[in-house]
Specification:
Chain lengths: 222, 262
């Protein structure tokens, strides 16, 4: 399915799907109404495509792509124009398809959405594949750190260094700690600082999101 | 065969609720109405005097208030006007997939592309036949109302044979339009091609070489070119058929091999 799916404007949702049903050589007429129901288009079953909202046109495009329960599906920006509810529906539908054995290739610039549903991510920059990782590998590669703010950051850093934590002072008046032990148990940092009279004003577990990872990956590739 | 039938069914669904169908029937229906107006003028001596321009036109066309003249007029409308209207039909059927943005949906289906194109060609043929039958029915209705004088059944059979042969020739000559619709990815290129062929068919026919220009042949056969009809020979029809075959293969081969990303 391409980014902006088009349909025959003079035909209703049902008729548009009927055209695809015929050309896909499907034999179960119920498939049309099933996909209409799955994509919450029942209300618009007899509405002409040129009277649908952008989101519903996108749903119709997805219905055309999914009507035959494909084993391989290539989607370009499938959630373009969808409302939050529609995004969740499409996400669930794609997850369901994948669970049933279909392979879904999804290209999108909405990386937050990709990180929610993909189990293998490829980053393409300027036409070149620069990274391909599983979500498990991604989880190991993304930057995680604890950011702490105290009344006396210098004193807190000295104290943490004495305890073998790799603490550095950041320009944003924060202490950055990247030890795995600290990341696994941030409550230990809070406890240590509090016991030494430096109760943290703020403790924040920062985790790089896919967007940041993407930007870092393309920068490293330059 | 099953794939072909399903492709035809898909094409039939696609034309549902289309205003363009009605528009073609209305546009093509002008011919029998024009014939009826000529008849009315010729039947009424008072009107004949008032409608000087129309009366002169009717006279120039050797139009008489009888069935033979009336059916011949309809035949000429198919041979000349048909090149335009059938051309519009072909442009719409093949160009709409690009205009509607649905062409990409037709590229990765179990139904072969050639079968989809064949279905479109069949729809084009059905549509054009429906247009000429509609004109004939409207003509018969108007002619009956106007009480046109009867001619012998032999003449009637001859006129009707000419009518349907002209239809076939006009349909055949419209086949290459499909290529221009796919190549130009829309309506503009095929409509431009139709306009060009119509102009050239008139100009070339006027110079006397129309017998070897495929788009002039239906018009000449219809009798619109008067005595030039007799100059049509087997070579004329062979060129026409070769144009149709070349148009068909250019269309199917192009759509199978073209870079569809452009």
């Amino acid at each position: 399915m391409v980014e902006t799916p088009y349909s025959y404007p003079n035909l209703s949702v049902y008729e548009n799907l009927k055209v695809i049903y015929k050309l896909r050589e499907l034999t179960r007429p119920i498939a049309i109404d099933s996909i209409i129901e799955s994509l919450k288009l029942t209300k618009y079953r007899n509405t002409k495509a040129n009277q649908l909202s952008l989101g519903n046109q996108q749903r119709l495009g997805l219905a055309k792509a999914l009507i035959h329960s494909p084993e391989l599906l290539i989607l370009d920006e499938p959630i373009n124009g969808l409302d939050p509810e529609g995004i969740v529906e499409v996400r669930d539908l794609l997850t369901e398809l994948a669970k049933n054995g279909s392979t879904v290739f999804l290209s999108s610039h909405i990386l937050g959405e990709i990180s929610k549903i993909a189990n293998r991510i490829a980053i393409i920059h300027e036409g070149k594949l620069i990274k391909e990782i599983t979500t498990q590998e991604l989880s190991n590669q993304i930057i995680k750190k604890i950011l702490v703010q105290t009344a006396d950051n210098q004193k807190a850093i000295q104290h943490l260094l004495n305890l073998n934590y790799s603490a550095v002072h950041k320009n944003s008046n924060e202490i950055e700690i990247t030890n795995i032990e600290a990341l696994e148990h941030p409550e230990h940092i809070t406890k240590l600082l509090t016991e030494n009279g430096l109760p943290p004003k703020q403790v924040y577990l920062f985790s790089e999101d896919l967007e940041m990872f993407f930007l870092r990956a393309i920068k490293e590739n330059l | 065969m099953k794939q072909q039938i399903r492709a035809i069914q898909a094409e039939l669904i696609k034309v549902k609720h289309s205003y363009f169908i009605l528009a073609t029937f209305v546009a093509f229906g002008i011919a029998p109405i024009m014939g009826a107006v000529f008849t009315l003028i010729l039947q009424d001596s008072e009107a004949l005097e008032k409608a000087g321009g129309l009366a002169a036109k009717a006279k120039a066309m050797d139009f008489e208030a009888n069935w033979r003249s009336y059916i011949d007029l309809l035949t000429q409308a198919v041979g000349v006007g048909g090149v335009l209207v059938f051309g519009f039909v072909a442009s719409w059927i093949f160009g709409r997939e690009y205009s509607d943005g649905t062409a990409k949906d037709l590229l990765s289906l179990p139904t072969p592309r050639t079968k989809i194109l064949n279905a479109k060609f069949l729809l084009y043929g059905f549509w054009c036949v429906a247009l000429v039958l509609s004109n004939l029915l409207v003509g018969l209705l108007l002619g009956t109302i106007l009480q046109l004088s009867m001619i012998s059944t032999d003449w009637l059979a001859l006129s009707l044979t000419d009518y349907f042969i002209t239809t076939i020739l006009t349909i055949i000559v419209g086949v290459p339009i499909a290529f221009f619709a796919l190549y130009g990815k829309g309506y503009l290129a095929p409509l431009g091609f139709v306009a060009l062929t119509l102009v050239f068919s008139q100009v070339i026919a006027a110079t006397g070489y129309g017998t070897y220009f495929p788009w002039s042949v239906p018009g000449l056969y219809s009798g619109a070119g008067g005595e030039y009809k007799n100059s049509l020979d087997n070579f004329s029809y062979t060129i026409l058929i070769m144009t149709c075959i070349a148009g068909y293969f250019a269309t199917t081969i192009y759509w199978k091999l073209a870079d569809q990303t452009k």
